[in-house]
Amino acid sequence: NHVNNICSMWGNFHFKTFDGDFYQFPGTCEYKLVYDCKDPSPWFSVYVKRSESSKISRVSVTIKSFEI
């Protein structure tokens, strides 16, 4: 069931991990949401930053050397 293999973040600083745990953490740093850790330089990564008002202020997606 792929529904159990999803990580996400939403709302008022809510996070759900791949293993199904839920957290509420009011941090405003840039967080590594997911990345490929098998190679020394990850094949893909997703970073997310929130503002102090809990809104997502930046999402960075990198695939190989291409950043969105």
UniProtKB/TrEMBL annotation:
<keyword id="KW-1015">Disulfide bond</keyword>
<dbReference type="InterPro" id="IPR050780">
    <property type="entry name" value="Mucin_vWF_Thrombospondin_sf"/>
</dbReference>
<protein>
    <recommendedName>
        <fullName>VWFD domain-containing protein</fullName>
    </recommendedName>
</protein>
<dbReference type="InterPro" id="IPR001846">
    <property type="entry name" value="VWF_type-D"/>
</dbReference>
<dbReference type="Pfam" id="PF00094">
    <property type="entry name" value="VWD"/>
</dbReference>
<feature type="domain" description="VWFD">
    <location>
        <begin position="5"/>
        <end position="68"/>
    </location>
</feature>
<keyword id="KW-0325">Glycoprotein</keyword>
